[in-house]
Specification:
The chain has 1501 residues and is mostly helical. It is built from 70 helices and nine strands.
């Protein structure tokens, strides 16, 4: 066994009372060889007799019988006497000659080596070696005799007394001294090199007991050479090196020797080598040891694939085998040496390529993880990082787990814990890796304990309540129950624990839960008599109870569960064979479906959910014909419920309800239409029943069209009449301004509900019939497709008109609209809470949403009486009106209404909405339906297939290349596309708000790849509409009412005189939406994957300039290839750059939108290069050069500068500063981040902002002052935005420099000099911006100074390590920099002190963070100066209390100060809720650097 070297030399057991040894005499000449005197017997005998006589004088009897050892008196006394006798004269030579003659006989030699008596371990040879005069000669004699016994192989394993060779080696151990150590060691090494393995290991193992510390260098060198010649002695050599008391140099040499053996050593000796290396590790060589182990260790865990596939060989790797011993050695070495773990983690961080990772990396991570402690978290984080970067892949874990059951068994819990950690990560890639680990562990370990532990861990994740964690854990369970259902049946009782968490699951997870149990039930058998059928019985019992429960929370569980069971047991193409008959399964499914329908028959929301879920089930699964026939019969009552017959396309009789007259709207089929949708009569005749009846209209129609498509091979020809049939709605005459005001509340509600149900009916029509044109259907001709597309476009015109009318009405008559789809947990609606579980359909009324709040109205009234006079005079908002009307304002709705709508309407439109008190006014079809968007989550959602209408046109034979009258249709679809892209990529917050609709349709559940494949055909249409909008913007004509009216009449829209379409408004809106969709598409991360690279190329190819731009690319060498992605990126950028100039002449806001789109192109390039890049800068999958990034940055900075230096058009000045204030910061950020020298530019702009804030705000001189500095966008209304952006960018730029500075230790002094210059520039910018507060005394500005001040100080604290290394060369510059920075910290301290006295909460909330940063800054400065400077130049004391102007304040007690901020100031300054206000702290930053009376800084000499 290998042990670590001892700190002290190893000592032999102390002898009994040894007298002091006199100084050794000069060694005599070595005795003549025995062979020289062999010819004469007499001289030989005389030499032996002479030696015997000398020994006899000392008390030793040499000549004894051969089987007995020589008689020896007390060894210490014998040695002392003999030493005295041999002190002078040739006696020593005679004795050595006699001993040599005596040892000629092997028997006599053995006598010399045996112990003199049974009770004494000392032999005569050992006693004579203690005599200095005899030792050199006798050592040489014994070493010469040793080769004579090399061939005694028969003695291998014999007792020590019989093995002369081992007896000789024994004599060398624990000698008190070596007279000539160098000669002896040289002779010993010479013998060792030729010794047989039996004696070689004996000699190597005895070296620590033979040689002294002085000889260790020679010994280490000899052992090193020996290892190169003979690998069989590795273990013995390692043991010896461990026992030697080596100095640091020799220890490092020994480690080097051991490392060199890693590659060549035999596998069974590897644990000993690893144990030696790990025990010999120090803080100096730990990194090298770990690195060499990683590189050279051939871990045997790489399994033969054939063995892994073979069931006979699977799991045969034993934990006690070589691999197990290696792991045990590694674990024992890592357990008590954290520096080794840290060295490995550091080494692992530096690996930046997948091929450089090895199996040993995985095992080392697991061993560190098993040790626990602080390093466990570090191991977790590094493993997660490597997985996310793609460096550690599944194949590594596969080599560790597959086929190594016994080896992994001891570390099973570590693997499971790592899997748990990865499954709880937010990143999807980490959870996918955890999915693999759980599956691999389940398949590899078939024992009950391991699988129970694994299933229990998954159940814990399922009950965690974290949505992404729950979803991934359920996916793993689905995979296991699908592939290993029979193996899971014995432990199914553990899986039933999922049922405890059903109430917290949303719909998607509920579907997964029931799929898990359906898989188990199918494996056990739904109708079998086996014991496993209890799973199916329990599942059916739970679902029946849930469906019958009146509570919506449980009923939705039952509906989803029932339909999932139906899909499992009534599947026409089952994936598994049932244990029972197909007919029995179908009857069971049909009975369950009937029970679900009957339980929801008289309640609205459950029935809507059931119809929608059933339609989705038919879309994805082919069910048994009996199920399909029964559902078809059930939805056949649609005609009776919702349709009415017509005579020659007209109503048989006029319908009149009180003062509301009915008429047919939007008849596309004319006189041949046989039916109409009977909306108005159902709304008005029976309020208790009609609303609930119409609520299921859309969902039942969805189910009807799904059944029709399934039965007609995708065609909807059997119900084609529904597409063109008219709608029975209130007469358009009542929408006249004069008649609207005379309607009663009930009549107004009837009109609103009629329009609302008509809107959702048309939306479902579009969803259903767009499937006929979005994809080719075999039995639908091209002519029918074209006719259907034209009708759908007309229906889209109907939809735009209806939504605009309803939106206008809701402005003056707020009303809560009924929900037409079950929202579940997506949109945060009140559908679940609002559902009256015991109420039946006929008991529901249209007053429901308002009457539900009657009890609460009393509390609201009492609260309103407490309003003060100021609040009563406050102007009402849209939300206030909704609350008064009883509308339930959810968090999502409130958020939607609170966000600005810059891409939909201007601030002037908002004011008009608030001022309209009772008149409908003009209806702009292009204005965003703000009121509808607030409640959009209740509407039926448009499917992705509807977006295909962007590619169609109504007037295909027109001479015009682009139809302006169709832009409203395309705008509506573009807004819906933008909304869907928002849901596809929710983590990116849009700069321009495009839609507040809450959409949770099936498109959100589709994968990104599926959605991109359906959107890809729309790219050319996006470009076409962008070009059309640009041409209309250049035209600048006001309106196009004639074209819209003509097409509107053909669509059957009623003539409403106050409906208008603004040409400039529609062109602007289309332009914004196309750019917004383009940015969203580029922002989709999955678009940059190799699988979607063709989609990316087509998107870029579509948006290429019409003119050749190759001349602009002359600076690239080699030239860019047109087929490559980098060329397409530049082409897209050039196209938007070309359109910015004409757009800028029309609207500064639109030009800013173009600039932001150009920035998104650059961001996409950076993301693409970061996703997959090689060392040469070329993308692995497509040729994309890094050289295009500086090229685009340069052009982007020029474009941003052009916008900042251009003036707003007059019409945008009138629109207010809100949009301007939102855009300027973004443009300024783009300008700063893409400029060549950000630090210099920050310094210039900081001076301009400081000047702008210092100038008095005189109205007569404002224009001249704003333009004099060359930036018209820098004015009094935007100065706060400039100030904030400069702070943010300066701090961000400083952080980048600090990261670069920490990497410059190995770089040249020029690089360090440049970094120090950049740090100085950032400090000057910061001091300049903070200094502005001395002359500009606005609280909002001061709050920003404090907020960004302590953030900059925190960043500066990270630079002290770099400054310390540079202090020797640039000490004066660094001291000056700190002095300048101190000026800013004093201003911040003064602002905080005044804010406390005046109770300015906007500032006090940021004081704690500022205080901590300032205190750390003071002490870091003091430490820097004391460590690097020889002068006492820093002291700490209390500051004098002064104001911002430098005047000493006699008292810190402030009088009453009016600190009320005006509204503009509050809008400009954002509150910072991160740190709470600490108004009770009386010592806010009072402990700063001391100041003397002459205002000198404490850093002055």
């Amino acid at each position: 066994m290998v042990f670590l070297q001892r700190s002290n030399p190893r000592k032999r057991p102390p002898p009994a009372s040894t007298p002091p040894v006199p100084p050794a005499p000069t060694p005599p000449e070595p005795p003549p060889s025995a062979s020289a005197s062999a010819s004469a017997s007499a001289p030989n005998l005389s030499a032996v007799d002479a030696a015997a006589a000398l020994l006899a004088e000392a008390g030793c009897t040499l000549l004894v019988p051969p089987h007995l050892p020589p008689s020896l008196p007390s060894p210490p006394a014998f040695v002392a006497r003999l030493t005295r006798d041999l002190a002078a004269g040739p006696a020593a030579a005679r004795l050595l000659a006699g001993l040599a003659a005596f040892a000629d006989s092997p028997t006599r030699l053995r006598q010399l080596l045996l112990p003199s008596s049974p009770g004494s371990p000392t032999s005569l040879a050992r006693a004579l070696l203690s005599v200095p005069a005899l030792q050199p000669g006798l050592l040489g004699l014994l070493l010469d005799k040793l080769p004579e016994h090399f061939d005694d192989d028969a003695l291998d394993g014999a007792p020590l007394q019989e093995d002369v060779g081992r007896l000789i080696i024994k004599q060398f151990r624990w000698l008190d001294l070596l007279v000539d150590a160098d000669a002896f060691v040289a002779k010993l090494v010479e013998v060792l090199s030729v010794a047989p393995p039996r004696l070689k290991k004996e000699i190597i193992g005895s070296i620590p007991e033979i040689v002294g510390d002085r000889s260790h260098p020679d010994v280490v060198s000899a052992l090193e050479n020996l290892l190169q010649e003979d690998s069989q002695v590795v273990v013995a050599v390692l043991d010896t090196l461990s026992d030697l008391n080596l100095n640091a140099h020799l220890q490092e040499q020994a480690v080097t020797v051991a490392i060199s053996c890693i590659r060549t050593i035999h596998a069974d000796q590897m644990p000993h080598l690893l144990r030696f290396l790990l025990l010999a590790a120090t803080s100096v060589n730990a990194g090298r040891i770990i690195s060499q182990i990683r590189e050279q260790l051939k871990f045997v865990g790489v399994v033969d694939p054939r063995a892994a596939r073979s069931k006979k060989l699977k799991g045969k790797a034993s934990a006690t085998s070589t691999d197990g011993a290696i792991l045990h050695a590694l674990r024992s070495g890592l357990r008590f040496k954290n520096m080794l773990c840290e060295a490995f983690l550091k080494e692992l961080k530096s690996v930046d390529h997948p091929k450089d990772h090895k199996v040993i990396d995985v095992w080392l991570i697991m061993l560190i993880y098993a040790n626990g402690g602080a390093l466990q978290k570090s191991a977790e984080k590094i493993l997660k990082s490597k997985i996310l970067q793609g460096y550690i892949r599944e194949t590594l874990f596969n080599q560790c787990i597959r086929g190594n059951t016994e080896l992994v068994k001891d570390h099973f819990m570590s693997y499971l814990s790592v899997s748990d950690y990865l499954l709880a990560c937010k990143e999807e890639k980490a959870r996918e890796f955890a999915t693999y680990l759980f599956t691999a562990l389940f398949e590899e370990f078939n024992d009950t304990f391991s699988r129970q532990e694994l299933i229990g861990s998954l159940i814990t994740h399922i009950g965690s309540g974290v949505s992404y964690e729950v979803s991934s854990a359920l996916d793993i369970m689905i995979s296991l129950t699908s592939n290993h259902s029979e193996e899971l049946i014995p432990i199914a009782s553990h899986i039933t624990g999922i049922l405890d968490y059903l109430e917290s699951f949303h719909e998607d997870n509920l579907r997964k839960v029931y799929e898990i149990f359906c898989n188990l039930a199918l494996a056990a058998g739904f109708n079998s008599g086996s014991g496993g059928s209890s799973i199916a019985n329990e599942l059916l019992m739970v679902v029946r109870k849930q469906v019958s429960n009146p509570d919506m929370k449980y009923k939705r569980m039952g509906i989803i569960g029932a339909l999932r069971i139906v899909s499992a047991i009534a599947d026409a193409n089952p994936a598994v064979s049932y244990s029972s008959s197909e007919q029995a399964n179908c009857e069971e499914a049909l009975g369950l479906l009937k029970m679900a329908v009957n339980s929801c028959k008289f309640v609205t929301m459950p029935l809507i959910l059931l119809y929608d879920e059933l339609a989705a089930l038919f879309e994805s699964t082919v069910l048994h014909s009996a199920i399909t026939e029964w559902v078809g019969e059930h939805v056949a009552e649609f005609d009776t419920l919702f349709l009415a017959d017509l005579d020659d396309g007209q109503l048989s009789e006029k319908y009149l309800c009180e003062s509301i007259e009915g008429e047919l709207w939007m008849n596309l089929d004319g006189n041949i239409s046989p039916i109409c949708v009977n909306i108005l009569p159902l709304v008005s005749t029976s309020p208790q029943k009609s609303q609930a009846c119409l609520q299921i209209l859309a969902s039942q129609f969805l189910l009807l069209t799904t059944i029709e498509r399934k039965g007609s091979e995708g065609s909807l020809g059997g119900i084609n009449a529904l597409l063109g049939c008219p709608l029975h709605l209130p007469s358009a005459k009542i929408l006249d301004e004069s008649r609207w005001g005379s309607l009663s509340e009930l009549e107004k509600k009837t009109v609103c509900h009629s329009l609302y149900f008509a809107i959702n009916w048309i939306r479902e029509l579009l969803n259903a019939f767009s499937t006929q044109v979005a994809a080719r259907v075999d039995n639908v001709s091209q002519r029918v497709r074209d006719e259907t597309a034209v009708k759908l476009l007309k229906r889209l015109r109907n939809l735009i008109l209806l939504e605009s009318l309803l939106n206008t009405i809701l402005k003056i008559y707020p009303l809560s609209l009924p929900e037409l789809r079950y929202l579940g947990d997506y949109a945060g609606s009140a559908s679940t809470s609002k559902f009256n579980h015991g109420r039946k359909m006929e008991e529901e009324s249209m007053e429901g949403p308002s009457s539900n709040k009657r009890k609460k109205s009393r509390k609201d009234k009492a609260a309103s009486d407490k309003l003060n006079s100021d609040e009563k005079l406050k102007q009402s908002t849209i939300l206030d009106a909704f609350k008064r009307a009883g509308v339930i304002i959810t968090q999502e709705t409130n958020k939607a209404s609170s966000q600005p709508f810059p891409s939909r309407m201007m601030s002037k439109d908002v004011e008009n909405e608030a001022n309209n008190s009772g008149e409908l006014g003009h209806v702009d079809l292009m204005a965003a339906p703000v009121q509808l968007d607030i409640q959009r989550f209740k509407f039926r959602t448009l499917n992705v297939s509807c977006l295909s209408l962007i590619n169609y046109s109504e007037a295909q034979d027109s001479t015009y290349s682009y139809h302006e009258s169709e832009l409203p249709l395309y705008l509506y679809l573009l807004r819906d596309l933008h909304n869907k892209l928002d849901h596809l990529n929710p983590q990116s917050k849009p700069f321009f708000s495009t839609s507040q609709a809450k959409s949770t349709s099936a498109h959100c559940q589709k994968s990104t790849g599926e959605l991109l494949s359906k959107i890809q055909p729309l790219f050319s249409s996006l470009r076409k509409h962008l070009d059309g909008a640009i041409s209309m913007i250049k035209d600048r004509s006001d309106s196009c009412p004639d074209n819209w009216s003509s097409f509107s009449d053909s669509a059957g829209n009623p003539h409403i005189p106050y409906v208008m379409v603004s040409k400039s408004s529609i062109a602007t809106s289309v332009f914004k939406e196309v750019l917004g969709c383009y940015r969203k598409l580029l922002g989709i991360s999955d678009l940059l994957n190799q699988a979607n690279m063709s989609v990316l190329k087509e998107l870029l190819q579509t948006f290429q300039p019409s003119e050749i731009f190759d001349d602009d690319l002359s600076e690239f060498c080699p030239p860019l290839v047109p087929s490559n992605v980098d060329y397409l990126y530049i082409g897209a950028y050039k196209m938007f750059e070309a359109i910015m100039d004409p757009v800028c002449l029309f609207s500064h806001i639109l030009a800013s939108d173009v600039l932001i789109t150009m920035q998104s192109i650059l961001n996409s390039i950076v993301a693409l290069l970061e996703k997959s890049v090689e060392s040469n800068g070329k993308n692995i999958h497509v040729g994309c050069s890094k050289e295009i990034i500086p090229f685009l940055r340069k052009h982007l900075a020029l474009s941003a500068h052009k916008l900042l230096t251009s003036d707003f058009p007059s019409e945008e000045r009138e629109n207010g500063s809100q949009s301007k204030g939102d855009l300027i910061p973004r443009i300024l950020q783009i300008y700063l981040r893409n400029s060549e020298s950000t630090s210099n530019l920050l310094g210039d702009l900081a001076s301009l902002v400081s000047y702008q804030l210092k100038v008095p705000s005189l109205k007569t001189k404002s224009t001249t002052q704003e333009i004099s500095h060359g930036f018209p966008t820098l004015c009094s209304s935007t100065s706060y935005s400039w100030y904030r952006v400069l702070h943010e960018e300066n701090t961000g730029n400083f952080n980048k420099m600090i990261k670069q500075a920490l990497k410059t230790r190995s770089q040249s002094g020029v690089a360090e000099e440049n970094i120090l210059d950049e740090i100085e520039k950032s400090v000057k910018v910061f001091v300049s911006l903070i200094g502005t507060c001395k002359t500009y005394e606005k609280v909002a500005l001061h709050a920003m100074a404090v907020k960004y001040g302590w953030r900059f100080i925190d960043a500066f604290l990270k630079a002290f390590n770099f400054l310390e290394t540079q202090f020797g060369q640039h000490g004066d510059r660094i001291v000056k920099m700190i002095k300048d920075l101190q000026k800013a910290t004093r201003i911040i301290q003064t602002i905080c002190a005044e804010a406390k006295g005046n109770k300015r909460t906007m500032i006090t909330s940021k004081i704690p963070g500022a205080k901590r940063s300032m205190e750390r800054f003071v002490f870091r400065v003091k430490a820097l100066l004391e460590h690097c400077s020889t002068e006492e130049s820093c002291s700490i004391a209390n500051l004098k209390h002064k104001d911002l102007h430098g005047h000493v304040v006699s008292s810190q007690v402030y009088g009453d100060v009016d600190d009320d901020l005006n509204d503009a100031e509050q809008e400009q300054m954002e509150t910072d809720p991160e740190t709470p206000a600490d108004e009770n702290d009386d010592n806010i930053m009072e402990e700063d650097v001391a100041e003397d009376d002459e205002e000198t800084t404490p850093l002055d000499d």
